[in-house]
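Thread: quick sanity check before group meeting

JM: Hey all, I'm pulling together slides for Thursday and realized we never actually wrote out the predicted structure for the chain we discussed last week. Dropping the sequence here so it's in one place. If anyone has concerns about the input, flag it before I start.
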Amino acid sequence: MFNIAQLPAKYRQMSVAALEKRALEVKAQLGKDLFIPAHHYQKDEVLKFADKTGDSLELANYSRDNAAKYIVFCGVHFMAETADMLTADDQIVLLPDLRAGCSMADMANIQQVERCDRLLQEQYQIDVLPLTYVNSTAAIKAFVGRKNGACLTSGNAHKMVSWALSMNQVILFLPDQHLGRNTAYDLGVPLDQMAIYDPIRQTLIYEGDVSDIRIILWQGHCSVHEKFTTANIEHLRRTEPDRRIIVHPECSFDVVRQSDDNGSTRKIIQTIENAAPGTKWAIGTEMNLVNRLIKHHPELDIISLNPYMCACLTMNRIDLPHFVWCLDKIVAQDLSNQITVDAETTTYALQALDKMLQRQ
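JM (edit): ok, ran it. Output follows.
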């Protein structure tokens, strides 16, 4: 476990102007030794200092391709882990607030996954081919690599699930059941050939003959995207039938099916950027991004699909005070915010990542 220190009072007491001034000073001082990637869901107050913005894998690849000594990753823990595994040994990846995790990634730990694998083999004689969303820990990525599986993103999920189906093995899809279900269904796998594994009860949930199972979905979800409902959609269909609805595939099956379109964060951004002026949109994804799209596209009428939606709480742990504190600690050579992955885990996790990258 990390020794998570409390943010010193002085950073809470500094004005926004003072914090921004200090951030610019450290950026200037460190120059090319500092690289700041920031996720699309990050707060504007931090995103404005980013050298690159993107989704989790884009940012890890940007980090890999950058020679900076210090990489201050403005995202969540699993993203920083991936960046550490993809960068050189002498590069240092830091997370501004070590409490910035991911509720979805936390729904699958390595002990649970190994227990699931044993249960499936011993009770059901199922030796799975695992696929893991990049929203997972390095340890789980390594498990997947050891079993010749692969990682995937929401942007290439169809490509990777299609590859896995061609291997003629039962797929174990980790850790987001909704992305797995939506993707497999798009590729022709019927719902009655999908099972669910409950890691808390250590139970395979399936009503048919287990020999018919083609994909086992881990019972995990995104706490943000699960908040979009069919009731949200039905309300808009009644009141504003001309408003198009686009959602992230981490939303539930019924929400995705009832929407006009769905896709990764990148696809949502590109769709809005290419939309005709004056068109009306409801977006089902994280609120910081939706608000940013509203701000950047005044020519469009954009709302959140759920008007009571909040931002990703764990991502938002990285705020301007924590960001500046992290920069100051680099200057002081205090690397307590460093994220590291051991060599063995990295070796096997990279095998799973490489299988995906080879099919980009």
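AS: nice. The longest strand covers residues 129-133. The chain has a mean pLDDT of 92.
JM: adding both to the slides.
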